[in-house]
């Protein structure tokens, strides 16, 4: 530090150290920004000739700043980021563009006698300019992190939801305000976060933006949680294992959300990601403690002498309680971010011990870019959509599996008693798999053409019911044109292949209705007539009516669909034309056996009146309610219902 004591930046370093010790920093973002500004000035004012001298000086400053307040992790994070930038730019100037070329496995490092640690003592003329450019990008990332997080709010906050949070987080505040600015209506419940009561400040700020806000005491969190749609909180730091160092009270909130299966969303910038761990829940090293005066005032000194009062600032929230992280890095930029390398580096620039064997390193090096891309996308989707654990598939061989009316069981295929039992199991599973992957699957997509009157190019987070409706209709069309027993073989007949491709094309994400009459674009267009907009959540009933309208319109341009009609059930009645809902029984004895078995399900407990069985028949509108004749010339087709009443013994008494 003696070499920079005469530089103008030395005063700023002392001021930052003082602010950290006195707790006068205004949040993690301001601390991170001040740290980067100081580092930039050190690089500009300090007379260094090579990267080694600069790294040595920054490490001394980092030690002083971090020691001033060890719990303020973002200052250390910024020094680590900048030191990594310096080392990377030095290697780029040296001509080593792939850091993996100089890194070795732990086994090789321990068995070799040579010291292959890279040195940074060569002078390069353009190194300072390259470092400043990279630090400017880091500063830009910090400045835009809040906005980038807020812009994702519409993907996580849906209309008429109840959002709960605790304390005051500037990131969460901007997140909620952005959603409200985009006309998304929701209610916010804020735990006051005693004894600091920061929740009152957030409640007042949101109320000024006309957001429906309710403040509750911390003791009411569990009682209110059952009515909450999701929990959204900020965090001070994200630990290396995915755990949180969050405001005191966040752990209680997370436990209550876990109990009621309410998703917990964490809004945080990537500059808060730290390589530190919580060791054995060591609160003395992990936490920061405030004055107990806020809990027990000095006027109660007589009682204070009889007890030890602790007022922690932070809570540790384990990673298993977190559902989703919303950060300033989008799905696309995750692949190119040097975040994994940064997380594994220390101030000294040495790789942390990861425990990988030599074989594992060779396997990692052999992975293709496409495979790595897939792994990163899969990892991001797991974090974004909350599938944090791998689900183990359990296929019971002793119970049947039903897929759209088809049953699969080893006993159903084991007609030959001499057949090997393992072969029977394999046959049943293969048949199920063949049927399963013959179904058409629609799910969230991104980067399709913009939806009408919107800038959205993805249906992530709001189009789930539209996709489900598409699958229902696609399955009906497959069954209608190819039959329920049709299977995808990869080499079908030309006719089957043409029909299959035609059905899939009808659902493509193409805004042209003549090519794709059942696309998301077309369904959203019809949704606008119901008062829905792109990005709004659709319920099952809404989607049913959209599909009915889409099928009717599609018949005008696709003659092959002109003989297909869709009926939406109203008040528990209805099916589609040329379709009946019934239970098939081969003989009269089978029918009465069925009635006996199903009586307890058809007749609710304490039901005194006769319980009807509905038989749906296809007919036309006619004054004669008993008429079941069909008139194909009439466009006004109506579904008729015939009632059969059972007596207390389950026998048909009247029709």
UniProtKB/TrEMBL annotation:
Protein known as: Cysteine protease
Location in the cell: Cytoplasm, Cytosol
Sequence intervals crossing the membrane: none
Domain Peptidase C54 catalytic: 430-573
Annotated Gene3D superfamilies: Translation initiation factor eif-2b, domain 2 (3.40.50.10470)
Assembly behavior: Component of the translation initiation factor 2B (eIF2B) complex which is a heterodecamer of two sets of five different subunits: alpha, beta, gamma, delta and epsilon. Subunits alpha, beta and delta comprise a regulatory subcomplex and subunits epsilon and gamma comprise a catalytic subcomplex. Within the complex, the hexameric regulatory complex resides at the center, with the two heterodimeric catalytic subcomplexes bound on opposite sides.
EC number assigned by the record: 3.4.22.-
């Amino acid at each position: 530090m003696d070499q920079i004591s005469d530089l103008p930046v030395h005063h700023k370093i002392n001021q930052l150290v003082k602010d950290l010790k006195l707790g006068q920093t205004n949040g993690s973002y301001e601390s991170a920004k001040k740290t980067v500004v100081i580092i930039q000035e050190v690089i500009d004012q300090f007379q260094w000739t090579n990267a080694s001298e600069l790294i040595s000086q920054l490490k001394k400053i980092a030690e002083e700043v971090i020691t001033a307040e060890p719990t303020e992790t973002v200052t250390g994070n910024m020094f680590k980021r900048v030191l990594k930038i310096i080392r990377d730019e030095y290697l780029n100037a040296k001509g080593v563009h792939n850091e993996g070329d100089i890194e070795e496995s732990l086994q090789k490092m321990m068995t070799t006698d040579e010291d292959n640690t890279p040195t940074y003592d060569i002078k390069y003329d353009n190194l300072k300019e390259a470092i400043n450019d990279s630090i400017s990008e880091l500063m830009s990332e910090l400045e835009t992190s809040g906005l980038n997080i807020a812009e994702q709010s519409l993907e996580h906050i849906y209309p008429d939801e109840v959002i709960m949070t605790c304390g005051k987080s500037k990131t969460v505040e901007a997140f909620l305000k952005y959603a409200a600015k985009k006309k998304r209506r929701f209610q916010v419940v804020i735990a006051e976060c005693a004894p600091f009561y920061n929740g009152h400040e957030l409640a007042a700020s949101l109320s000024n933006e006309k957001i429906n806000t309710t403040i509750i005491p911390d003791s009411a969190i569990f009682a209110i949680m059952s009515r909450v749609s999701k929990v959204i909180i900020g965090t001070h730091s994200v630990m290396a294992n995915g755990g949180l160092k969050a405001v005191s009270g966040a752990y209680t909130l997370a436990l209550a959300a876990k109990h009621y299966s309410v998703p917990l969303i964490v809004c945080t910038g990537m500059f808060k990601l730290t390589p530190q761990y919580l060791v054995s829940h060591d609160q003395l090293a992990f936490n920061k403690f405030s004055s107990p005066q806020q809990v027990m005032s000095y006027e109660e000194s007589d009682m204070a002498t009889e007890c030890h009062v602790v007022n922690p600032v932070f809570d540790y929230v384990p990673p298993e309680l977190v559902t989703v992280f919303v950060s300033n890095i989008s799905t696309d930029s995750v692949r190119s971010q040097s975040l994994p390398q940064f997380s594994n580096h220390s101030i000294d620039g040495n790789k942390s011990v990861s425990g990988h064997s030599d074989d594992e390193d060779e396997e990692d090096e052999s992975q293709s870019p496409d495979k790595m891309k897939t792994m990163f996308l899969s990892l991001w989707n797991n974090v974004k959509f909350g599938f944090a654990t791998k689900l183990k598939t359990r296929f019971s061989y002793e119970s049947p599996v039903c897929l759209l009316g088809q049953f699969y069981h080893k006993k159903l295929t084991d007609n030959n008693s001499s057949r090997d039992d393992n072969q029977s199991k394999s046959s049943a599973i293969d048949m199920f798999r063949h049927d399963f992957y013959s179904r058409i699957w629609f799910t969230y997509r991104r980067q399709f053409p913009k939806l009408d009157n919107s800038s959205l190019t993805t249906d992530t987070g709001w189009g789930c019911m539209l996709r489900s409706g598409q699958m229902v209709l696609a399955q009906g069309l497959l069954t209608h044109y190819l039959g329920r027993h049709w299977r995808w073989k990869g080499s079908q007949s030309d006719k089957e292949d043409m029909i299959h491709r035609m059905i899939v094309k009808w659902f493509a994400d193409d805004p042209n209705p003549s090519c794709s009459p059942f696309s998301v674009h077309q369904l959203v267009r019809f949704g606008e007539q119901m008062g829905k907009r792109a990005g709004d959540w659709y319920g099952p009933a809404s989607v049913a009516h959209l599909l009915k309208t889409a099928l009717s319109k599609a018949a005008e341009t696709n003659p092959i669909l002109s003989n297909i009609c869709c009926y939406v059930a109203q008040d528990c009645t209805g099916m589609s034309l040329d379709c009946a809902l019934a239970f098939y029984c081969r003989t009269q004895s089978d029918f009465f056996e069925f009635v006996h078995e199903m009586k307890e399900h058809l007749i609710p407990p304490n039901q005194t009146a006769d319980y009807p069985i509905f038989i749906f028949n296809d007919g036309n509108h006619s004054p004669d309610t008993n008429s079941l004749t069909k008139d194909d010339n009439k466009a006004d087709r109506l579904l008729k219902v015939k009632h059969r009443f059972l007596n207390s013994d389950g026998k048909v008494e009247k029709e």
